[in-house]
Amino acid sequence: MIQPEKKDIALKVENVSIAFGGLKAVDDLSFSIRRNEIYGLIGPNGAGKTTIFNCITQFYKADSGSVHFIHSNGKETNLMDLEVHNVIKEGIVRTFQNVELIRELSIIDNVLVGAHHVMHQPLLGQLFNRGKIRRDEEETRKKAEGILEFLDILHLKNFIAGSQPYGVQKKVEIARTLMSNPDLIILDEPAAGLNDTETKELADRIKKIKDVYNATILLVEHDMRLVMDICDHICAISFGEKIAEGTPKEIQSNPEVQKAYLGEEGELE
Amino acid sequence: MIKIVKNSYIQFILLGLALLTLPFIAEMGVIRNSTVTVIGTTIIYTIAALGLNVLLGFSGLISLGTAGFMGLAAYISAYVTETMNLPFEVAVLAAIIIPTFLGILVGILSLKFEGIYLGIATLVVAEILREIFINVTEFTGGASGALASRPELLGFFKLDRIQTYYLIVIVMVIIFMLIHNLTKGHMGRALNAMRGSEAAAQAMGINIFKYRLIAFGIATILASVSGVLYVHYVGLSYPTTWNLMLSLDFLAIIVVGGFRSIFGTFIGAFILFAMSELFLKPIPALANIAPLVKGILIIIFILYYPNGLANIKNQVSHWWQRRKGKKDEYGQTKEKKKKLTRAEVRENDTA
Ligand SMILES: Nc1ncnc2c1ncn2[C@@H]1O[C@H](COP(=O)(O)OP(=O)(O)O)[C@@H](O)[C@H]1O
Ligand SMILES: [Mg+2]
């Protein structure tokens, strides 16, 4: 595979390792993601995919290695220096494998949480509900409605998030990421629990998100059709180590990948 | 008209106005003067319970120390006005700032202790405070208590019992409005997120440390305001008042009234405090069962109505709307719901 030029790269994961007890969940893993591409991370269950996401978003601090995010203006940030809640300020936002929503709140309120860091509301202003605050709320709400419409769930906006089917909850999580004006969106198994039609629709939406929001997308997914369909590049890992990287075609014909998946998912299509 | 009444500010003001009429009704002989005093005390408890509701209801953080902070504020205000002879306003400031500072320190503890352990940690702080109330007699008057007179505003306007009651009602309405502002928007979402999913909150840029301190800060400010009003309304403060039972009462108030509901907090305080004072205690045969009734109420609510009375109100109005057949629970007609356009949804929202 031809190495991309530095200025085209959005995220650079270099020699990252992390162990839990004796178990090496991620072992000296490196990969780079180009700006504005869809990059897939695949591997059997327990391969370390979620763990590497956690290392990128600083929910875990890697034992060694580095994770650099390169802004479109060329500025480079070592994410390992950041506290977990400051990662989103760099334009990096994620979803969770097991949907993380505020179950008791309405869908729209859940989505509004995604705008937390782009809203500048001093406490005193909020206390007295100043005009500026009200306008900010109003505008943010409109933006949220626009995103819900984009994902076809606007009609559900006032329903309680926890009472919605899994597929809708997954969409709410994606909607929430879009509120933060992200440059890099990290999706952990976005199609898990969706049926075939929903998965197809999701594939279409993810591609649209990339174009409309001009974002780079990193995703973990078990649905091989989805991965092969929408990803520009794929990295396959097994037991925390990279076993192959390349275009969907290259990955499909890679014998190592075939071997890792044998007995897990059956065959790769 | 309905639209106006739906505005929360108007609802708070209407409640305030209704409460302001009570002394007149007592004057006319319809209710007793002591009833007004009970309602005034209920409002004072509502304020402290609302602080706990911000902490527990919104942020998911437990505290068993509410009574301790309330008591500390009561003693400080009594000491500053009576012993130091300083103006009421100075007393209020001191009685809010000192406990709140302590409350924020406890907030820092909350990063180390989770759940039940946080409850125990706050309880320990409250018990230490109670030891101080009993033993530091120069400051608290020890077991014989501290005395405080009615508030003197701006150094010349001395309030009597009824005027103090008015002050309490006005403070309550203002606090309701401010807490409504804080919890319905940006900060409320951050606290909700922190409770709902700490991981999601952090991923969305919410600084857990900062918001835990804010939650503890608000809870202690309201407990302090409550303590100040208490000591200048009731006139004295005993160490025995500020015990674990009172903190548990605040907990019970929000369990019964409803998490995250301002009105629910008021109703909870009314049911748990005013009802037993007004209806059970005057009847000798029932006076002793007041704690039992309290206990049963709490169990019923935890088991059957975990969202408190505030939510029962919603359920009743949903049921009523369904019965009317026209509208579903979100106020949208059934035929329309299937294919709402964006404009229609917005229209429904503002209606
Ligand atoms: N916080 C943790 N503590 C201990 N072990 C962990 C932790 N997070 C992940 N692991 C382990 O690391 C390995 C990789 O897990 P994960 O990254 O979730 O796999 P997946 O590729 O299915 O997302 C698993 O063996 C898992 O048990
Ligand atoms: Mg996983």
UniProtKB/TrEMBL annotation, chain A:
PROSITE patterns: ABC_TRANSPORTER_2
Protein name: ABC transporter ATP-binding protein
Annotated Gene Ontology cellular component terms: plasma membrane
Domain (ABC transporter) ranges: 11-264
Alphabetized SUPFAM superfamilies for the sequence: P-loop containing nucleoside triphosphate hydrolases
GO MF annotation terms: ATP binding; ATP hydrolysis activity
Species of the source: Alkalibacterium kapii
Signal peptide: none
Keywords: ATP-binding, Nucleotide-binding, Transport
Pfam short name (any one): BCA_ABC_TP_C
TrEMBL record, chain B:
Keywords: Cell membrane, Membrane, Transmembrane, Transmembrane helix
Region Disordered: start-end pairs: 325-351
InterPro entries xrefs: ABC_transp_permease, LivM-like
Ranges of compositional bias, category Basic and acidic residues: 341-351
Location relative to the cell: Cell membrane
Membrane-spanning intervals of the chain: 12-31, 37-56, 61-80, 86-109, 116-134, 162-179, 213-231, 251-273, 285-305
UniProt topology in membrane: Multi-pass membrane protein
Domain of life of the organism encoding this protein: Bacteria
Gene Ontology CC terms, in alphabetical order: plasma membrane
A GO molecular function held by the record: branched-chain amino acid transmembrane transporter activity
PANTHER family with a match to the protein in the record: HIGH-AFFINITY BRANCHED-CHAIN AMINO ACID TRANSPORT PROTEIN BRAE, HIGH-AFFINITY BRANCHED-CHAIN AMINO ACID TRANSPORT SYSTEM PERMEASE
Name of this chain's protein: Branched-chain amino acid ABC transporter permease
Source species taxonomy: Bacteria, Bacillati, Bacillota, Bacilli, Lactobacillales
